[in-house]
């Protein structure tokens, strides 16, 4: 594949390095020169955004968008803070609504031949049964004369202001046709919210477990990003934390969870640097709360990752008892240790575990007959985080979940061997797919009929402004 050079708009205005007219070098990516009008500057930025979008689609491995953007923009000094915010906004809107925009363009091109919205959507679905083919179709559209149109449509759809701007007026009929189609069929509803129709079966399951109104609320929520949520590590620091947050954000409390809205970065806050708060989504915090451990009890977080839930579990223990954190990735355990030290939790221990066999119990745990609580927050499709990472619904389209569900059951089964008599096992995922949630729990209970199910639920969106997570609590015999 021929590698495209990313176009960069450079100002021809000479720099002045001496005297009272001295000015800093201008940012080439955003064209802040005085002789550019706002309209021209935005047009230049949108062309640069299109180049970045094309570059992301060109990657052989379809990387997670936020990580790719951070790496790509961070390695080039021409991109300042405002650039990163602008390009992040445009590309995340493209990821959120790119599937919808591609259908708008496709329908517009076929309406003259008499195609209906339903027929056009069906045809596009046939062309894009998996992530590879969808990536290819989005790439072809982006490299064609429709590339700038696709991004402009996504920007409009993010705000849905009526009517369409004059530059997009020729797409009015196809936009209206898809807007009407969303009321007629689930496929139309999915397209309107930028969700590939290949997810229809999983969403039908969600509908059966709730209601039609709940499903529509869930889909509508996918149009927006949830707020940033913090978790309070130390209850005695609540006043200091809320006082500092009130200076920079609109903050709302929900127990130890605090949602914040504002432009300032979190990492510079004293409450963050002191370890008084951590970044953690509301639903993720609720999963950690399912581990209702009390001071003196012993807990195992089997798939700890960077330790967000580990710290949430440790907080109410008040440094009494012990929390073991394991993960297959040892560099993640280094992060757990750093965060535990910063938060002044001294009862957290770490060890590697690959999940291939039951954990070899530490002596103090073996002497006690096992752990009081075990949490298995296993690897999953991450469908519950689409609001925060909309590119995941594009990159995982048509993914075979068989290997993933086999791993989830394996981890749950091996972890259950470490629960003491009468202890509890919590299973969670950041997914709303029934195949990763209730189906795994049901199979575990079929294989282990002596265990009992205490509770099972989806948490978060659409009832709360957050991600969507599943949690089940099982009790050992």
From TrEMBL:
Task: List UniProt keywords, sorted A-Z.
Answer: Methyltransferase, RNA-binding, S-adenosyl-L-methionine, Transferase
Organism expressing this protein natively: Marinagarivorans cellulosilyticus
Region entry Disordered, spans? 1-37
Q: Which family does it belong to?
A: Belongs to the class I-like SAM-binding methyltransferase superfamily. RsmB/NOP family.
Q: Which domain of life is it from?
A: Bacteria
Give the matching InterPro entries.
Answer: MeTrfase_RsmB-F_NOP2_cat, MeTrfase_RsmB-F_NOP2_dom, RCMT, SAM-dependent_MTases_sf
Residues folding into a coiled coil are none
GO MF annotation terms: RNA binding; RNA methyltransferase activity
Question: What's the protein name?
Answer: 16S rRNA (Cytosine967-C5)-methyltransferase
Sites binding S-adenosyl-L-methionine sit at 327, 354, 377
Give start and end of each SAM-dependent MTase RsmB/NOP-type domain: 205-477
Q: Which Gene3D superfamilies does this one have? A: Vaccinia Virus protein VP39
One Gene Ontology term of the biological-process aspect is: RNA methylation
Active site, per annotation: 430
**Presence of keyword Secreted:** no
Which regions are flagged for Polar residues bias? 8-28
- Enzyme Commission code(s) on record: 2.1.1.176
């Amino acid at each position: 594949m021929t590698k495209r050079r990313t176009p960069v708009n450079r100002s021809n205005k000479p720099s002045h390095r001496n005297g009272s007219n001295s000015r800093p070098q201008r940012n080439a990516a955003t064209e802040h020169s005085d002789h550019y009008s706002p309209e021209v500057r935005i047009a230049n930025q949108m062309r640069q955004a299109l180049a970045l979008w094309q570059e992301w689609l060109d990657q052989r491995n379809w990387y997670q968008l936020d990580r790719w953007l951070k790496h790509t923009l961070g390695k080039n000094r021409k991109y300042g803070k405002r650039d990163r915010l602008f390009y992040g906004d445009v590309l995340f809107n493209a990821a959120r609504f790119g599937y919808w925009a591609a259908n708008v363009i496709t329908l517009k091109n076929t309406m003259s031949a008499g195609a209906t919205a339903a027929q056009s959507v069906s045809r596009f679905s046939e062309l894009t049964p998996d992530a590879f083919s969808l990536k290819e179709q989005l790439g072809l559209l982006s490299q064609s004369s429709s590339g700038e149109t696709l991004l402009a449509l996504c920007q409009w759809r993010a705000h849905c202001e009526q009517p369409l701007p004059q530059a997009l007026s020729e797409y009015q009929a196809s936009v209206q046709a898809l807007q009407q189609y969303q009321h007629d069929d689930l496929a139309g509803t999915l397209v309107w919210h930028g969700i590939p129709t290949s997810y229809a079966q999983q969403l039908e399951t969600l509908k059966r477990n709730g209601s039609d109104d709940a499903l529509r609320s869930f889909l509508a929520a996918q149009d927006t990003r949830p707020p940033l949520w913090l978790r309070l590590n130390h209850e005695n620091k609540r006043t200091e934390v809320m006082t500092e947050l009130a200076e920079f954000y609109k903050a709302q409390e929900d127990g130890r969870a605090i949602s914040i809205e504002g432009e300032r970065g979190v990492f510079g806050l004293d409450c963050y640097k002191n370890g008084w708060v951590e970044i953690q989504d509301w639903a993720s915090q609720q999963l950690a709360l399912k581990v209702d451990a009390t001071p003196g009890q012993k807990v195992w977080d089997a798939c700890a990752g960077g330790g967000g839930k580990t710290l949430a579990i440790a907080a109410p223990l008040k440094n009494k008892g012990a929390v073991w954190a394991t993960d297959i990735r040892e560099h993640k355990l280094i992060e757990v240790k750093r965060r535990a030290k910063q938060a002044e939790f001294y009862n957290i221990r770490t060890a590697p575990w690959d999940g291939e066999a039951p954990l070899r119990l530490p002596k103090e745990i073996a002497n006690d007959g096992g752990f009081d609580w075990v949490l298995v927050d296993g690897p999953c499709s991450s469908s519950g985080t689409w609001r925060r990472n909309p590119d995941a619904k594009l990159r995982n389209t048509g993914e075979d979940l068989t290997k993933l569900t086999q791993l989830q059951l394996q981890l749950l089964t091996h972890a259950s061997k470490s629960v003491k008599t009468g202890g509890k096992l919590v299973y969670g995922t950041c997914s709303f797919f029934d195949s990763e949630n209730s189906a795994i729990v049901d199979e575990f209970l079929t294989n282990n009929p002596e265990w009992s199910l205490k509770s099972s639920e989806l948490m978060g969106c659409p009832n709360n402004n957050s991600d969507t997570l599943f949690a089940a609590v099982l009790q050992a015999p």
